[in-house]
């Protein structure tokens, strides 16, 4: 599969997560405070809660329900109650297009 356009870069607001679904895979897309675009699995590993409804600070996203924070770079949980990472997807920027292939994840770190 090839990368799919999920949104325009100009549509992303800094530190405001955006939920997209590509081939039935929910993904949380974030433009962080350093102007980097990240894409992680949108479902908190502690519960069935959408991370795109959470809060972004620096390069982390926090689940609004129970407070687990995940690294946008590695997917690793940074505090309990979550202890399993979320997948991190490779993001490509082509002009103003944000492209993601939900079958390509970054290696766990």
UniProtKB/TrEMBL annotation:
Keywords: 2Fe-2S, Iron, Iron-sulfur, Metal-binding
PROSITE patterns: RIESKE
Key word Iron present: yes
Pfam families (alphabetical): Rieske
Keyword Magnesium: no
Protein name (database record): Non-heme iron oxygenase ferredoxin subunit
InterPro entries: Rieske_2Fe-2S, Rieske_2Fe-2S_sf
Organism for this UniProt entry: Microbacterium elymi
Location of the Rieske domain: 4-100
């Amino acid at each position: 599969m090839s990368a799919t356009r999920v949104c325009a870069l100009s549509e992303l607001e800094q530190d405001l997560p955006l939920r997209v679904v590509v081939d039935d895979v929910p993904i949380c897309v974030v433009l962080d405070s350093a102007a980097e675009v990240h894409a992680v699995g949108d479902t908190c590993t502690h519960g069935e809660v959408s991370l795109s409804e959470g809060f972004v600070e620096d390069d982390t996203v926090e689940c609004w329900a129970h407070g687990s924070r995940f690294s946008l770079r590695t997917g690793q949980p940074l505090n309990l109650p979550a202890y399993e990472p979320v997948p991190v997807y490779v993001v490509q920027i082509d002009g103003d297009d944000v492209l993601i292939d939900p079958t390509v994840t970054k290696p766990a770190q």
